[in-house]
Amino acid sequence: MACPICNKPTQTAFRPFCSKRCTDVDLAKWLTGAYAIPSNDPDDAEELENRLRDTPETKPH
């Protein structure tokens, strides 16, 4: 199996990746939304805006 980031052979310790670097690259893509599936439905964006506006902020104690 090849690493999905760089296509090098997979290393058991980092499966399905080849290295810590590639695991971090993959995580960064998830966290920045690079793997997000775009929606063309304007209702989705409006619903999210409403939820965010109506949700009280939680502050750490």
Total strand segments = 0
Count the DSSP helices: 2
What general outline do the C-alpha atoms trace? elongated
Reported for the largest beta sheet, the result is:
none
Beta-strand percentage range: under 5%
Helix-residue proportion: 40-55%
Mean pLDDT: 86
Describe this structure in words.
The chain is an all-alpha fold and 61 residues long. It has a domain at 12-53. 43% of the residues lie in helices and 0% in strands. The relative contact order is 0.11.
Supply the key terms.
0% strand, mainly alpha, elongated, 61 residues, 2 helices
SSE arrangement:
Blueprint lengths: L19 H13 L9 H13 L7
Quick recap:
By secondary structure, the protein is an all-alpha fold. It has helices spanning 20-32, 42-54. Helix content is 43%, strand content 0%.
